[in-house]
Amino acid sequence: MQNPGRDVAAVFRVSDEVRSACAERRPVVALETSVLSQGLPPPHNLESAYAMDRAVRDEGAIPAWTAIDGQQVRVGLGEGDLERFCDRALPIAKVARRDLAAALARGGMGATTVSATLWIAALLGIDIMATGGIGGVHPHSGDVSADLLEMARLPGLVVCAGPKSIVDPVATLERLEELGVLVVGYGTDRLPFFIVRDAGLALEHVVSSPREAAGLARMRRALGVSSAVLLCQPVGEAHALPLRKVEDAVRECEARAAAHGVTGKAVTPFLLSTLALVTGGASLSANLALLHANATLAARIAVEAEAG
Ligand code: PSU
Ligand code: MN
Fold first, then answer.
1. 287 within ligand 1 shell (Cβ under 6 A)
2. Ligand 2 centre and the CA of 166: distance in Å?
3. pLDDT in tens, 96-121
4. What residue's CA is closest to ligand 1, atom 7?
5. Which residues surround ligand 2, an ion (CB under 5 A)?
6. Residue 33 CA: which ligand 1 atom is closest?
7. Is residue 149 part of a domain?
8. How far apart are CA 103 and CA 84, in angstroms?
9. What is the pTM of this model?
10. Structurally, how many domains does the chain consist of?
11. Ligand 1 atom index nearest CA of 145
């Protein structure tokens, strides 16, 4: 990754817990906050934050939530912080990697997406992060998530449930190949598609245990490969939605987004909240379930990784 500037220590505020876990090489999992501040509605965002935090701890790892707060990059948030980042009454910017400097200079609160979280994690030597679904290539609009390029140039293991069901899975998978991002199925050789278990696309690489995933991450490190590994765990069967149903629902959401003139960063939050409406809450239940499962898996891999 890029050499951090000399002032980097001054703008970072790392919790004692995360700082000592990193120093002692204990397992740490980075967690993004945009899913809380922009991706999930209250009260589910805070419930999900607590559940993910607990899941990581129960597996024996330390959660490292990342955010921008009062001209500082925060790593390691407590309960009160999580409450603030889940409060929709507060103005909270959606911060991708390119926005970090602007968000810091401006002050106030910023919730980090996968691209910003991965960058922050890499700077601290945190190798594993968990999210719900990564961004990707949206159909028709030319909108491509910054998540993709950052995964191409930052190390780390991103545990997710595949690309979000609101993007074009074929174009997204092709772009990841072009960018040199290794895509690996967790216990499946089909591309998981967020709230859908199978996008209808084959995956070449599969791992089936946290130990295998940790081994793969270790090999990436040993080679010095500087792009991330995308580990895709399918949403649990009990919460999964059928592909056709989701495709129809997403089309309806896209039409509503167009009618409302939604563009830019607002597209993903708008489509996710509309998808929850159109599916009668089913997409939200699935989203919450997969976030919890991904945090759990990331923690298990972090524990295996530090066990050597
Ligand atoms: N996973 C979810 N919900 C979310 C996100 C991930 O279940 O809201 C967020 C992540 O922060 C991801 C971002 O980086 O959505 C992608 O947004 P965009 O498509 O605008 O790049
Ligand atoms: Mn976008």
1. yes
2. 11
3. 999 999 999 999 999 999 999 999 99
4. 132
5. 143
6. 11
7. yes
8. 17
9. 0.96
10. 1
11. 21
